[in-house]
Amino acid sequence: MSSLRTAALLNAYRDAGAELGAMAGMSTGLRLAQPSTERPWLTELTPVARTLLIGGSAKASLESSGLVAPSLFGISTLAQCEIAQTAPRQFLVSALPATPAELPYFTLLTDTLLLTTEYAEFAVGGPGALPLIDEIATADSGATTATAWFPTQICGIDAVLRREPAGFRVLCAPAEGPWMGAALLTRVLAVGGGLMGYLDYLDARP
Protein backbone atom coordinates (compact mmCIF):
# COMPACT_ATOMS: atom_id res chain seq x y z
CA MET A 1 0.00 0.00 0.00
CA SER A 2 1.35 3.44 -0.94
CA SER A 3 2.36 5.73 1.92
CA LEU A 4 2.04 8.83 -0.24
CA ARG A 5 -0.35 11.52 0.84
CA THR A 6 -2.90 12.64 -1.75
CA ALA A 7 -3.31 16.17 -3.06
CA ALA A 8 -6.79 17.66 -2.82
CA LEU A 9 -6.78 18.32 -6.58
CA LEU A 10 -5.40 14.91 -7.57
CA ASN A 11 -8.60 13.74 -9.28
CA ALA A 12 -8.91 17.06 -11.11
CA TYR A 13 -5.32 16.73 -12.29
CA ARG A 14 -6.02 13.16 -13.42
CA ASP A 15 -9.15 14.24 -15.31
CA ALA A 16 -7.15 17.00 -17.01
CA GLY A 17 -4.60 14.48 -18.26
CA ALA A 18 -1.76 15.76 -16.09
CA GLU A 19 1.46 13.86 -15.52
CA LEU A 20 1.06 12.55 -11.97
CA GLY A 21 3.89 11.89 -9.56
CA ALA A 22 5.28 12.39 -6.08
CA MET A 23 6.32 15.75 -4.70
CA ALA A 24 7.64 15.86 -1.11
CA GLY A 25 5.74 12.70 -0.21
CA MET A 26 2.46 13.70 -1.85
CA SER A 27 0.87 12.36 -5.02
CA THR A 28 -0.12 15.34 -7.16
CA GLY A 29 -0.17 16.76 -10.68
CA LEU A 30 3.30 17.65 -11.93
CA ARG A 31 2.79 18.87 -15.49
CA LEU A 32 0.05 19.36 -18.03
CA ALA A 33 0.53 19.11 -21.78
CA GLN A 34 -0.97 22.60 -22.12
CA PRO A 35 -0.75 24.39 -18.75
CA SER A 36 -2.95 27.44 -18.36
CA THR A 37 -0.23 30.09 -18.65
CA GLU A 38 -2.06 32.75 -20.65
CA ARG A 39 -5.30 32.42 -18.67
CA PRO A 40 -6.15 32.30 -14.96
CA TRP A 41 -4.63 29.21 -13.42
CA LEU A 42 -4.74 27.16 -10.23
CA THR A 43 -2.14 24.84 -8.75
CA GLU A 44 -1.82 23.00 -5.45
CA LEU A 45 1.15 23.67 -3.15
CA THR A 46 0.09 21.45 -0.24
CA PRO A 47 3.25 19.27 -0.56
CA VAL A 48 5.38 22.12 0.86
CA ALA A 49 6.73 21.12 4.31
CA ARG A 50 6.03 23.42 7.25
CA THR A 51 6.77 23.63 10.95
CA LEU A 52 5.70 25.91 13.80
CA LEU A 53 8.01 27.44 16.38
CA ILE A 54 6.02 28.47 19.44
CA GLY A 55 7.06 29.95 22.77
CA GLY A 56 8.75 32.80 24.55
CA SER A 57 12.12 31.97 23.03
CA ALA A 58 10.87 31.26 19.49
CA LYS A 59 12.36 34.47 18.05
CA ALA A 60 15.67 33.86 19.80
CA SER A 61 15.68 30.24 18.56
CA LEU A 62 15.34 31.43 14.98
CA GLU A 63 18.08 33.99 15.33
CA SER A 64 20.42 31.56 17.07
CA SER A 65 19.93 29.27 14.07
CA GLY A 66 21.06 32.05 11.73
CA LEU A 67 17.55 32.88 10.48
CA VAL A 68 15.74 36.21 10.32
CA ALA A 69 12.63 36.61 12.49
CA PRO A 70 10.08 38.89 10.78
CA SER A 71 7.76 41.33 12.53
CA LEU A 72 4.21 40.33 13.45
CA PHE A 73 2.33 39.22 10.29
CA GLY A 74 5.48 39.85 8.28
CA ILE A 75 7.44 37.38 6.14
CA SER A 76 11.18 36.79 5.75
CA THR A 77 12.13 35.01 2.53
CA LEU A 78 15.53 33.38 2.84
CA ALA A 79 17.65 31.16 0.63
CA GLN A 80 16.43 27.98 2.33
CA CYS A 81 12.95 28.78 3.65
CA GLU A 82 10.24 31.34 4.28
CA ILE A 83 9.34 32.51 7.80
CA ALA A 84 6.06 34.20 8.77
CA GLN A 85 5.22 35.48 12.25
CA THR A 86 1.56 34.45 12.45
CA ALA A 87 0.97 35.47 16.09
CA PRO A 88 3.05 36.83 18.97
CA ARG A 89 5.76 34.25 19.79
CA GLN A 90 4.62 32.01 16.92
CA PHE A 91 6.46 31.52 13.64
CA LEU A 92 5.46 29.41 10.64
CA VAL A 93 8.53 28.16 8.77
CA SER A 94 7.83 26.87 5.26
CA ALA A 95 10.08 25.19 2.74
CA LEU A 96 10.37 26.95 -0.60
CA PRO A 97 8.24 25.54 -3.45
CA ALA A 98 11.41 24.73 -5.40
CA THR A 99 12.69 22.59 -2.50
CA PRO A 100 9.42 21.53 -0.86
CA ALA A 101 10.82 18.98 1.59
CA GLU A 102 13.79 20.99 2.87
CA LEU A 103 13.41 22.73 6.22
CA PRO A 104 16.36 24.26 8.10
CA TYR A 105 17.82 22.83 11.27
CA PHE A 106 16.80 24.70 14.42
CA THR A 107 18.68 25.21 17.67
CA LEU A 108 15.83 25.23 20.17
CA LEU A 109 16.20 27.34 23.28
CA THR A 110 14.29 26.86 26.53
CA ASP A 111 10.54 27.56 26.30
CA THR A 112 10.28 26.79 22.58
CA LEU A 113 8.25 24.05 20.90
CA LEU A 114 8.88 22.78 17.38
CA LEU A 115 5.70 21.30 15.87
CA THR A 116 5.33 19.71 12.46
CA THR A 117 2.17 21.08 10.92
CA GLU A 118 0.20 20.69 7.70
CA TYR A 119 -1.91 23.13 5.74
CA ALA A 120 -3.65 22.89 2.41
CA GLU A 121 -2.25 25.49 0.04
CA PHE A 122 -3.16 26.66 -3.43
CA ALA A 123 -1.81 29.28 -5.83
CA VAL A 124 -3.97 31.30 -8.21
CA GLY A 125 -2.43 33.45 -10.91
CA GLY A 126 -2.44 34.58 -14.51
CA PRO A 127 -4.50 37.29 -16.21
CA GLY A 128 -7.68 37.98 -14.26
CA ALA A 129 -6.40 36.59 -10.96
CA LEU A 130 -6.92 39.85 -9.06
CA PRO A 131 -10.64 40.31 -9.82
CA LEU A 132 -11.20 36.58 -9.28
CA ILE A 133 -9.72 36.70 -5.76
CA ASP A 134 -11.35 40.06 -5.04
CA GLU A 135 -14.71 38.47 -5.79
CA ILE A 136 -14.37 35.48 -3.46
CA ALA A 137 -12.31 36.93 -0.55
CA THR A 138 -14.53 38.53 2.10
CA ALA A 139 -11.82 40.65 3.74
CA ASP A 140 -11.42 44.29 2.73
CA SER A 141 -9.59 45.15 -0.47
CA GLY A 142 -6.27 45.35 1.36
CA ALA A 143 -6.12 41.56 1.34
CA THR A 144 -5.34 41.45 -2.37
CA THR A 145 -2.31 43.72 -1.98
CA ALA A 146 -0.91 42.18 1.21
CA THR A 147 2.59 40.74 0.84
CA ALA A 148 2.26 39.02 4.23
CA TRP A 149 -0.35 36.41 5.09
CA PHE A 150 -3.70 38.20 5.50
CA PRO A 151 -6.54 36.48 7.45
CA THR A 152 -9.75 36.35 5.42
CA GLN A 153 -12.51 34.06 4.26
CA ILE A 154 -12.43 32.60 0.77
CA CYS A 155 -15.53 30.90 -0.59
CA GLY A 156 -16.86 30.90 2.99
CA ILE A 157 -13.81 29.15 4.49
CA ASP A 158 -11.40 30.68 7.01
CA ALA A 159 -8.10 31.11 5.21
CA VAL A 160 -5.11 33.35 4.80
CA LEU A 161 -4.21 35.05 1.55
CA ARG A 162 -0.95 36.45 0.26
CA ARG A 163 0.04 38.34 -2.88
CA GLU A 164 3.15 37.20 -4.71
CA PRO A 165 4.62 38.14 -8.12
CA ALA A 166 2.97 35.14 -9.81
CA GLY A 167 -0.48 35.86 -8.31
CA PHE A 168 -1.89 34.76 -4.96
CA ARG A 169 -1.34 31.98 -2.46
CA VAL A 170 -4.18 30.66 -0.31
CA LEU A 171 -3.62 28.69 2.90
CA CYS A 172 -6.33 26.84 4.85
CA ALA A 173 -6.78 23.96 7.30
CA PRO A 174 -6.05 20.55 5.74
CA ALA A 175 -9.58 19.33 6.38
CA GLU A 176 -10.86 22.24 4.26
CA GLY A 177 -8.45 21.50 1.42
CA PRO A 178 -10.73 19.40 -0.81
CA TRP A 179 -13.58 21.92 -0.55
CA MET A 180 -11.29 24.93 -1.05
CA GLY A 181 -9.55 23.32 -4.01
CA ALA A 182 -12.86 22.46 -5.67
CA ALA A 183 -14.27 25.95 -5.05
CA LEU A 184 -11.18 27.68 -6.45
CA LEU A 185 -11.12 25.39 -9.48
CA THR A 186 -14.80 26.11 -10.16
CA ARG A 187 -14.11 29.86 -10.19
CA VAL A 188 -10.98 29.52 -12.33
CA LEU A 189 -12.80 27.36 -14.89
CA ALA A 190 -15.75 29.78 -14.91
CA VAL A 191 -13.50 32.57 -16.23
CA GLY A 192 -11.84 30.40 -18.87
CA GLY A 193 -8.82 29.30 -16.88
CA GLY A 194 -7.44 25.91 -15.95
CA LEU A 195 -4.94 23.92 -13.94
CA MET A 196 -1.17 24.13 -13.72
CA GLY A 197 0.94 21.31 -12.39
CA TYR A 198 3.39 21.78 -9.56
CA LEU A 199 6.38 21.85 -11.92
CA ASP A 200 4.48 24.11 -14.34
CA TYR A 201 4.07 26.55 -11.45
CA LEU A 202 7.81 26.54 -10.74
CA ASP A 203 8.51 27.21 -14.42
CA ALA A 204 6.06 30.12 -14.51
CA ARG A 205 7.37 31.92 -11.40
CA PRO A 206 9.31 35.15 -12.11
Domain module count: 2
Give the distance, in angstroms, between the N- and C-terminal Cα atoms.
Answer: 38 Å
On the 0 to 100 scale, the average pLDDT is: 90
Biggest sheet: strand arrangement: 11-12-13-10-4-14
What is the top-level CATH class of the largest domain? Answer: Alpha Beta
State the shape. Answer: globular
The assembly state of the depicted protein chains is single chain
Fourth-tier CATH superfamily name of the largest domain? Probable tRNA modification gtpase trme, domain 1
| Separate helix tally | 5
Total strands: 14
Uncertain segments are none
Strand content: 25-35%
Element pattern in H and E:
EHEEEEHEEEEEHEEEHEH
Largest sheet, in brief, is: 6 strands, mixed
Share of helix among residues? 10-25%
Structural class from helices and strands?
alpha+beta
CATH fold assignment of the largest domain: Gyrase A, domain 2
Computed over alpha carbons, the radius of gyration is 17 Å
Topology (elements, then pairings):
Layout: E1 5-6, H1 10-15, E2 19-23, E3 26-31, E4 41-44, E5 50-54, H2 58-64, E6 75-77, E7 82-87, E8 90-94, E9 113-117, E10 120-125, H3 129-136, E11 150-154, E12 157-164, E13 167-172, H4 177-190, E14 194-195, H5 198-204
Parallel strand pairs: 1-3, 4-14
Antiparallel strand pairs: 2-3, 4-10, 5-8, 5-9, 6-7, 7-8, 10-13, 11-12, 12-13
Description:
The protein has 2 domains: 5-46 and 119-204, 2-Layer Sandwich (Gyrase A, domain 2); 50-117. The chain is globular. It has helices spanning 10-15, 58-64, 129-136, 177-190, 198-204, and strands at 5-6, 19-23, 26-31, 41-44, 50-54, 75-77, 82-87, 90-94, 113-117, 120-125, 150-154, 157-164, 167-172, 194-195. Helices cover 20% and strands 33% of the residues. The strands form 3 sheets. A 6-stranded mixed β-sheet has the order 11-12-13-10-4-14, with helices on one face. It has a 5-stranded antiparallel β-sheet with strand order 6-7-8-5-9, with helices on one face. It has a 3-stranded mixed β-sheet with strand order 1-3-2. The protein starts with a strand and ends with a helix. The chain is an alpha+beta fold. The mean pLDDT is 90.
